[in-house]
C-alpha cells in the first residue's frame, strides 16, 4: 500500500491529504505538564528523542536514549533522516520520501501529534521541528526543557530496554515548503546586498557564538576558518534560552519569554529591522555552524509571530569550506 501511495503522488492524492490535515496545528512548544496530561487522557502522541551532540563530544545520543527516555519515545537520528550532500555535510533537510519513510517507521500518520525533545533541554529539538513543520506536518511541538525538565518535574522515566518499533503506518510523501531552505548560491547573492539600504536584502542571522562570528575564536571543526558571511548579524542561539539547574549539579535550557526574545532580537539587528521581521516585511534567514542551532533562532522568531523565515541548511560549514566564499571578520 505504501508503494501504491507513492506512485500516486503526481495525482490529486497529495493535495487532498494536505488539505485534510491542514487544520491539525499544535502549539510550537508544550510543557512537561501538558504532555503528561495528554498521557493521562490517553491522547495519541508520538514522542521522538531528537538529541544530537557535537562531533567532538564524547556523549552518544542513541546510547543515552537506550538508558533513559520518555515513556514510549523512539529515537530520531537527525544525521540519518537526512539528504546526502556533495561536501559530506550532515543533517541536511531530508527528501520527502526519506521523511515519509521515517514517519512510517515510527508509526506516525499525517494527523499524529508529534512531540520532539532532546537531552540538553532545548538544543536540537527545534531543528527537528523545523523539519516537520516545513515538510507539512504542523501537528508537531517541542517539549520545552526536554528530558531534564521532564525529569525535574518527577514525571516517569523509562529505563528498560526500548521496546520493538511500532507498527508501520502509511504516510504519503509531503511537499517541502519551497521558502524553507536557502542555497549557497542564494546566500552569495544576498551577501552582496546591504540590508540597511536594500529592501531586497534578506536578514541573515548567525546563531554561532560572537567569538566565532568575529573570527576571534576558532571553529570546533578542525581546519575550518571562523568569521562570518558579509552583511549578516550575530545572535548567539543561547540568548533565546535560559539555563536552569537540574539534578546533581547539571544544567539544562528552556526558551525565554517572548518579550525577552524580542529584546535580544532588537539588540542583534536593531529595533527597526526586528519590526520588519515580525511584520513579514523582510525574510529572516537563520544560520549557524552546521544547520542545527539555527533551528533555535528559527523557532524563537516563530514564537514572535515572524511569518517569513528560512534556514541556510549548509550553514557556516558549507560556506567556509568553499574556497570562493568571502569571509569577513571583526
TrEMBL record:
SMART domains: RHOD (SM00450). The keyword Metal-binding does not apply. Keywords: Repeat, Transferase. Gene3D superfamilies: Rhodanese-like domain (3.40.250.10). This is Rhodanese-like domain-containing protein. Residues 156-177 are annotated as: Disordered. SUPFAM superfamilies: Rhodanese/Cell cycle control phosphatase (SSF52821). InterPro entries: Rhodanese-like_dom (IPR001763), Rhodanese-like_dom_sf (IPR036873), TST/MPST-like (IPR045078). It comes from Lentinula lateritia. It holds the Pfam family Rhodanese. It comes from the Eukaryota. Residues 41-159, 198-328 form the Rhodanese domain.
Amino acid at each position: 500500500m505504501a508503494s501504491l501511495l507513492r506512485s500516486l503522488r503526481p495525482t490529486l492524492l497529495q493535495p487532498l491529504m494536505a488539505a485534510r490535515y491542514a487544520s491539525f496545528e499544535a502549539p510550537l512548544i508544550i510543557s512537561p505538564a501538558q504532555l503528561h496530561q495528554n498521557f493521562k487522557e490517553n491522547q495519541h502522541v508520538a514522542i521522538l528523542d531528537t538529541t544530537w551532540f557535537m562531533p567532538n563530544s564524547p556523549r552518544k545520543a542513541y546510547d543515552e536514549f537506550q538508558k533513559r527516555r520518555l515513556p514510549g519515545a523512539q529515537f530520531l537520528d537527525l544525521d540519518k533522516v537526512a539528504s546526502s550532500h556533495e561536501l559530506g555535510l550532515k543533517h541536511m533537510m531530508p527528501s520527502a520520501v526519506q521523511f515519509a519513510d521515517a514517519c512510517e517507521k515510527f508509526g506516525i500518520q499525517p494527523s499524529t501529534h508529534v512531540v520532539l525533545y532532546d537531552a540538553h533541554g532545548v538544543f536540537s529539538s527545534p531543528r527537528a521541528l523545523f523539519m516537520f513543520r516545513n515538510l507539512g506536518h504542523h501537528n508537531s511541538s517541542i517539549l520545552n526543557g526536554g528530558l531534564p525538565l521532564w525529569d525535574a518535574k518527577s514525571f516517569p522515566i523509562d529505563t528498560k530496554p526500548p521496546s520493538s518499533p511500532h507498527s508501520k503506518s502509511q504516510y504519503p510523501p509531503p511537499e517541502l515548503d519551497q521558502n524553507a531552505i536557502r542555497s549557497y548560491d542564494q546566500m552569495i547573492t544576498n551577501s552582496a546586498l546591504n540590508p540597511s539600504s536594500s529592501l531586497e536584502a534578506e536578514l541573515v542571522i548567525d546563531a554561532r557564538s560572537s567569538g566565532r562570528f568575529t573570527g576571534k575564536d576558532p571553529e570546533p571543526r578542525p581546519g575550518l576558518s571562523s568569521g562570518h558571511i558579509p552583511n549578516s548579524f550575530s545572535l548567539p542561539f543561547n540568548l533565546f534560552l535560559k539555563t536552569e539547574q537540574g539534578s546533581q549539579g547539571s544544567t539544562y535550557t528552556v526558551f525565554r519569554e517572548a518579550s525577552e526574545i524580542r529584546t535580544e532580537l532588537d539588540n542583534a539587528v536593531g529595533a527597526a529591522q526586528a519590526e520588519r521581521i515580525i511584520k513579514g516585511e523582510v525574510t529572516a534567514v537563520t544560520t549557524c555552524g552546521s544547520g542545527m542551532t539555527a533551528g533555535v533562532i528559527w523557532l524563537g522568531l516563530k514564537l514572535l509571530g515572524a511569518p517569513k523565515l528560512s534556514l541556510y541548511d549548509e550553514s557556516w560549514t558549507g560556506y567556509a569550506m568553499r574556497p570562493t566564499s568571502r569571509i569577513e571578520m571583526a
